[in-house]
Amino acid sequence: DVRISGEGLALGLTASEISRQLRSNLFGTTAIKQQEGRNEVSVKVRLLEQYRQSEADLLAMMIKTPSGDYVPLTRVASIGRSISPATVTRRDGRRTVDVTAEMTPRGETPQVIAALQASVLPQMKADFPGLDIRLGGDQRRQAESISSLLKSCTLALILIYMLLAIPFQSFVQPIMVMAAIPFGLVGAYLGHIMLGYTLSMISILGIVALSGVVVNDSLMLINTYNIYLKRGMNWRDAVIRAASRRFRPIILTTMTTFGGLAPMIFETSRQAQMVTPMAVSLGFGIVFATAITLVIIPCLCGVIEDVRGLFGNNHPTTEPVVAEG
């Protein structure tokens, strides 16, 4: 490491000028470029090999001052030792250093990254102005995948809404059906906590699949509710009868789905570890969403009818005689 000294500054030298002269002496400077047939040949000028072989040769080098005189390098600069990087990599013109680590257990990586971003990295930026820290490797790929998934999920939710709005002929009831989706996400998260898993990319893929599954129970309930409304029932009796009528099919559908996923959820072999988080998201998400759906959806029906009542557009409150076959 060569650092310019006070005497070097007094002689009019700069650190860049000293480094330029050292580089020219050791590595050479291009004096001329000329064409030799189809090839371009560069002619470099540098010290003879016998004067650039050892550390002693470096210490004996002479530096030219702005006045034209030559002075020893050790007079205008201080020379020290340090560990030099084997390679220097640059990205967008800036020098970069890659810092990698292997986590044990691997599932704790998000917590470690969060701790670094909360305390260590801000302190490093404060201590070294101009330092830019970016996450790369698995973390960068995961962030890109999550960003792409969010866009796809938004499009999927819009399509689900459209597919529900067309047969229901309503703008509100599809929202009631899709209200089970957030509760499915909560159930998936609770399932990971109960079994000791951390949310991973595979878990998120399971949550995406869960969004299309948990609407089934709500769809059956709302469809039956609409059938009773068309028969002339008031909304309160219609929702009670629909919940009673669909309770057993909803519970059986949920339990059979969870039962089918149970072997994957509780499998401990190493080969199953890749798909277990996805099964946990699907299994626990649908169980939790079903339990909430049987309570929340009837309540939402009452809320919607109360809102309609404010505008005088509610359903009949008296039930005519209906013949059921």
- The share of residues in helices is 55-70%
> What is the approximate shape?
elongated
Rg of Cα set: 36 Å
What is the SS-derived class? mainly alpha
How many alpha or pi helices? Answer: 12
Written overview of the protein:
There is one protein chain. With 325 residues, this protein is mainly alpha-helical. 60% of the residues lie in helices and 10% in strands. The chain contains twelve helices and eight strands. The chain has helices spanning 6-10, 15-26, 55-59, 73-76, 109-127, 137-168, 173-178, 180-195, 201-213, 215-230, 235-265, 276-310; strands at residues 2-4, 29-36, 39-45, 62-64, 70-72, 77-79, 89-91, 94-96. The strands form four sheets. A two-stranded antiparallel ribbon has the order 1-6. α6 packs parallel to α9 (201-213), α10 runs antiparallel to α11 (235-265) and α10 (215-230) packs parallel to α12. The chain is elongated and about 110 Å long.
Task: Based on the model shown, name its key terms.
mainly alpha, 8 strands, 60% helix
Brief account:
This protein is mainly α. 60% of the residues lie in helices and 10% in strands.
Give the topology.
Layout: E1 2-4, H1 6-10, H2 15-26, E2 29-36, E3 39-45, H3 55-59, E4 62-64, E5 70-72, H4 73-76, E6 77-79, E7 89-91, E8 94-96, H5 109-127, H6 137-168, H7 173-178, H8 180-195, H9 201-213, H10 215-230, H11 235-265, H12 276-310
Antiparallel strand pairs: 1-6, 2-3, 4-5, 7-8
